[in-house]
Amino acid sequence: MTMKKMAIAALVLLMIAVVAACGKSDKDETPSTPDTTQTEGGETTAADAEKVYQANCIGCHATDLAGGVGPNLQKVGGKLSQDEIKTTITNGRGGMPSFKDKLSDAEITALSSWLAGHK
């Protein structure tokens, strides 16, 4: 196998590993948050919002919200309001895709409330 083919094979394997890592979670690395968040439909546990985050966001924002492909979200609540975060999740922004067709309104509300608590 030539060096060029080996480099291409290594790149393909790296891309597969990156894609496989998307959506995986490591609960021990998730920052601590309040036990509940207030949403439009009532009270939702932080654990519910964290599950939504782990299933949809860690591929770009990391398990500890430190970012990577996407921006750092560790103090996003100090920069953006819950409504601004909700709008971003719903409609996307910059390189971030819209999640309005992937997540329910309740999931988006819970996630935006949870993230708004990170200050």
UniProtKB/TrEMBL annotation:
Residues 24-46 are annotated as: Disordered. Heme c binds at C57, C60, H61, M96. GO terms for molecular function: electron transfer activity; heme binding; iron ion binding. Pfam families: Cytochrome_CBB3. Keywords: Electron transport, Heme, Iron, Metal-binding, Signal, Transport. InterPro entries: Cyt_c-like_dom, Cyt_c-like_dom_sf, Cyt_c_BACSU-c550-type, Cyt_C_IC, Cytochrome_c550/c551-like. Binds 1 heme c group covalently per subunit. Residues 33-46 have a biased composition (Low complexity). Residues 44-119 form the Cytochrome c domain. GO terms for cellular component: membrane. Residues 1-20 form the signal peptide. It comes from the Bacteria. This is Cytochrome c class I.
